[in-house]
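Make up an example, fold above all:
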Amino acid sequence: MTTRTADQKPLLPVSVARAALDATRSDQLLYAGTSLLLMAGLRRDEATGLLVGDWSPGTDPQVTIRGRRQARTIRVATAVAAAVDSCLGEEKAGLDEPLLLGLKAAGHPYLFSRLFQARMRDAGLDVTMHDLRRAAIAAVVRDGTPTGYVEAYFGLSIAASGKQLVPTSEEFDRGIVALLEARFAAAA
């Protein structure tokens, strides 16, 4: 018996990932969402499911992602924090309100996807939201980050044995954040 593996789209070059992020810059909300996909490696549903109460801004910005398996809190790049904070502005939103209000509208669960794909078409880029997450994960893996750290940061379960060989310290994500920001933050 043979097993057929699906053809997988090649990983995005860093320059294309940066171009995709830059193509969203003119729309504050779309840029913030895209920043979360590329520089924090979130899934689309994770980004649109964030609530204001999940966001911890400041000098050490963090976000708590809930859902899938269990909640995880990760640090995020200062470029991501700036994009998200600019969307929040001075308004006092309730903790249970969507963090990026407008990317997931009632009756339009895929609004973020549609807006993103339209922007990529306009920019002449063949990039999907998942391509951004894959690019982020690949950058971290290529850098030699321990598997346990990759799993913890991106909410993955890739270890074959199910045992975590490298314990994650409280500071495990600082190196990941620095790498993602250095690799993908487009020059303003």
